[in-house]
């Protein structure tokens, strides 16, 4: 029986091979002439909704054909698993020229004959970083104009089948799909592929990649752009090469092209900040032995004789200052004169970065024909959801045309609900941060008594102080809470933005961006702000300590200062986020596609079709790029807002970004379906967010130098109190500590034991 089954399977495959002589790893219809511009897939599940879905599909496909599109269906028997139907869509010339005019698509009228006069004297030195000219500039530079059906003779139409690039073609087909009706339900006109995907009528809708990424297609008409992108751009070994931005734009569209242009420019600019930050760190490292403060703390005759007051009530004991010798030495790495210079340098760097990017963006805008893009956006980008839900219409005073609109009362109610929801979630973050602070206060005493009484901790007790142990565990706990809240809030933010019914796609993205960024800003940076500006500032003094909720005594900074704790917090959250982000971006899609790649290897090419291969890949999604920007802008905050506490932050960011460019390009080229091409003339609202963070970074770094580091107290001592001309900073430690009579301790604060009968503590 089993051998009979195998024989039948063999016959079935043999029949399928014989049925088609040409390979199914093709981007054309069965005739080998008409190009596949889009693919829809669905599964025929025989449940109670089956008939309704069938009717919707019939009506939708009938209306697509009325719009001029040509369809070809692959039966489920032809698919690998025998369950999925594929509907291949081709846009003929008439449809393309009609919608090219509607979408105001610019096409070539004449090849650019203006000679390029700019010569870079460094070209010879930069040759190893360059890519071949054909990869960098895949097509000649043209003078262009918006397409018009009446003036076809003006355009350079050499071949109708290749005049519109595949990315233009899939953009046109997607425009038709998002607006095509499929019937009336509950008295309302229903339309759009998005709704059909949501209700399960279709399982997927996507344009095709032009070939497999690891080898060129057999078809001589194929451009093999995916293969070129993989070989020249998406492999990590090409990390030192420039990016082929024109090819990225041609294959994926301007929106993705401008993201990679920004990411590449940001990474280039980070190189200078990373070098200066590393030099500042090395200065701290080489001057560590000359630091008078840590010398005095480590000296048994000075630090060993200074008795410090207990750091918690009852359980903690008196301790000698020289027990913090190692942590005071390490704090000098980050808290030195070079830190002040680096904070000033980063204030200048961030301004130069933003201004140079505006210049680079303006150049791209010109090169990619996006100069008058904003006017096009206003007319073209009305969201189908807005048109569907806004049943009322009013005359536009400018265009004199009737347009759908949302009444002011409805807008006000939606904004109130949206604003309240965002405030609730921001409050939730603040509550979670307070919970982490309570954790710090509650476990500090436990760590202090544990480290005093445990002999096994002796070898690391000098480095791992109770403050540092509490700070490290609290930072890790805080990172876990951040990730959980992020996961939950993402879904809430999308839901409330959908509820607001924004008018255009750009408006939708801007609103969602602001909501997500506000939340992420509070989520990621609140703990750093606490350590930098609040911790250790409201402690009180022996005999009159301040308490949170009248129960937990407010925590003090590490004896070496709060700056080393801020550095710890920043390192854990920043490094943790980067590692987690790369795992999510690279490893998860790779595992998900593992099975699909196995099928591709185990089946002959003429069985495992191009549309099935792409169907098995991950979905990039409308918000795919949004998350990429968000990740980078949060990182930008870490390297600008708190850089005075951690000069190595730009170096970490640089190493991450070199990897990030290749991870993003690799996953987009190999692990994801081809995204629908979209236009964009800038990085959008992210520019305003970066400007806001640049201004805030100047303030935060000034505050860190003034209040968190020991820079100002040291300078005051140096100029006002120093008595030793040969060693101006000697005596600083003794001068910075006040004296307390132990006999004045209230019973609540007094330690249980005082075996050495100390009289005073500092």
Walkthrough of the structure:
This protein is an alpha+beta fold and 762 residues long. Among the domains are: 24-116 and 129-208, no CATH class; 258-382 and 550-741, no CATH class. It has 27 helices and 18 strands. The strands form eight sheets. The protein has a four-stranded antiparallel β-sheet with strand order 2-3-1-8. A two-stranded antiparallel ribbon has the order 4-5. It has a two-stranded antiparallel ribbon with strand order 6-7. A hairpin with a 2-residue loop joins strand 6 and strand 7. The longest helix has 46 residues, at 408-453. The chain is elongated and about 95 Å long. The termini are far apart. The model is unreliable at 2-21 and 454-461 (pLDDT under 50). It is a multi-pass membrane protein. It is found in: Cell membrane; Membrane. The chain crosses the membrane at residues 259-286, 337-357, 422-447, 467-489, 516-533, 633-654. Pfam families: Anoct_dimer, Anoctamin. Keywords: Cell membrane, Coiled coil, Glycoprotein, Membrane, Transmembrane, Transmembrane helix.
């Amino acid at each position: 029986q089993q051998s009979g089954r195998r024989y039948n399977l063999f016959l079935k495959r043999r029949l399928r091979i014989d049925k088609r002589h040409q390979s199914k790893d093709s981007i054309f219809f069965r005739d080998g002439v008409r190009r596949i511009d889009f693919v829809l897939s669905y599964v025929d599940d025989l449940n109670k909704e089956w008939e309704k879905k069938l009717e919707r599909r019939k009506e939708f496909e009938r209306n697509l054909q009325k719009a001029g599109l040509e369809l070809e269906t692959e039966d489920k028997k032809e698919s690998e698993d025998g369950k999925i139907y594929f509907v291949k869509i081709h846009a003929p010339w008439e449809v393309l020229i009609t919608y090219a005019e509607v979408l105001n698509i610019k096409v070539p009228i004449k090849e650019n004959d203006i000679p390029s006069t700019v010569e870079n004297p460094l070209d010879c030195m930069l040759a190893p970083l360059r890519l071949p000219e054909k990869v960098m500039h895949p097509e000649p530079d043209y003078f262009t104009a918006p397409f018009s059906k009446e003036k076809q003779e003006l355009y350079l139409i050499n071949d109708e089948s290749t005049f519109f690039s595949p990315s233009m073609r899939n953009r046109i087909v997607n425009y038709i799909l998002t607006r095509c009706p499929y019937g009336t339900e509950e008295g309302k006109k229903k339309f759009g592929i998005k709704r059909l995907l949501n209700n399960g009528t279709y399982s997927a809708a996507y344009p095709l990649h032009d070939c497999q990424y690891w080898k060129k297609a057999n078809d001589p008409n194929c451009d093999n752009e995916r293969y070129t992108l993989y070989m020249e751009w998406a492999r990590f070994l090409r990390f030192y090469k420039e990016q082929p931005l024109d090819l990225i734009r041609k294959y994926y569209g301007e929106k993705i092209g401008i993201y990679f242009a920004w990411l590449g420019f940001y990474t280039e600019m980070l190189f200078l900040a990373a070098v200066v930050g590393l030099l500042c760190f090395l200065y701290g490292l080489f001057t560590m032995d000359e630091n008078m403060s840590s010398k005095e703390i480590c000296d048994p005759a000075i630090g060993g004789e200074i008795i410090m007051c207990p750091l918690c009530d009852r359980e903690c004991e008196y301790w000698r200052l020289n027990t913090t010798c190692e942590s005071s030495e390490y704090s000098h790495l980050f808290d030195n004169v070079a830190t002040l210079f680096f904070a000033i340098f980063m204030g200048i760097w961030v301004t130069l970065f933003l201004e140079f990017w505006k210049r680079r963006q303006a150049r791209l805008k010109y090169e990619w024909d996006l100069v008058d893009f904003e006017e096009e956006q206003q007319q073209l980008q009305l969201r189908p959801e807005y048109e569907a839900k806004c049943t009322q219409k009013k005359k536009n005073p400018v265009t004199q045309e009737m347009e759908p609109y949302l009444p002011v009362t409805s807008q006000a109610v939606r904004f109130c609900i949206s604003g309240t929801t965002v405030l609730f979630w921001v409050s939730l973050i603040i509550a979670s941060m307070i919970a982490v602070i309570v954790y710090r206060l509650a476990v500090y005493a436990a760590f202090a008594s544990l480290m005093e009484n445990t002999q096994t901790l002796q070898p690391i007790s000098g480095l791992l102080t109770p403050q540092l142990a509490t700070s490290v565990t609290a930072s890790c706990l805080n990172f876990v809470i951040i990730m959980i809240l992020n996961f939950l809030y993402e879904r809430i933010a999308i839901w409330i933005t959908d509820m607001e019914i924004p008018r255009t796609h750009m408006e939708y993205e801007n609103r969602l961006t602001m909501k997500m960024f506000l939340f992420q800003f509070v989520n990621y940076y609140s703990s750093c702000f606490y350590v930098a500006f609040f911790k250790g500032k409201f402690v009180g003094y022996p005999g009159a300590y301040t308490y949170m909720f009248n129960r937990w005594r407010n925590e003090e900074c590490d004896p070496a200062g709060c700056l080393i704790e801020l550095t710890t917090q920043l390192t854990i959250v920043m490094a943790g986020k980067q590692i987690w982000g790369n795992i999510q971006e690279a490893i998860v899609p790779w595992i998900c596609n593992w099975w699909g790649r196995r099928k591709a290897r185990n089946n002959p090419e003429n069985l495992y079709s191009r549309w099935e291969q792409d169907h098995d890949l991950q979905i990039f999604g409308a918000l795919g790029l949004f998350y990429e920007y968000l990740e980078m802008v949060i990182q930008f905050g870490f390297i600008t807002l708190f850089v005075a506490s951690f000069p190595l932050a730009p170096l970490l960011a640089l190493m991450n970004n070199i990897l990030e460019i290749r991870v993003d390009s690799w996953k987009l080229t190999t692990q994801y379906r081809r995204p629908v091409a979209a236009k964009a003339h800038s990085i959008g609202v992210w520019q305003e967010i970066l400007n806001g963070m640049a201004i805030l970074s100047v303030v935060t770094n000034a505050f860190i130098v003034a209040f968190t580091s020991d820079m100002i107290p040291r300078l005051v001592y140096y100029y006002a109190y120093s008595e030793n001309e040969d060693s101006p900073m000697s005596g600083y430690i003794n001068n910075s500590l006040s004296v307390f009579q132990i006999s004045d301790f209230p019973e609540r604060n007094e330690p249980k034991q005082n075996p050495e009968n100390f009289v005073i503590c500092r």
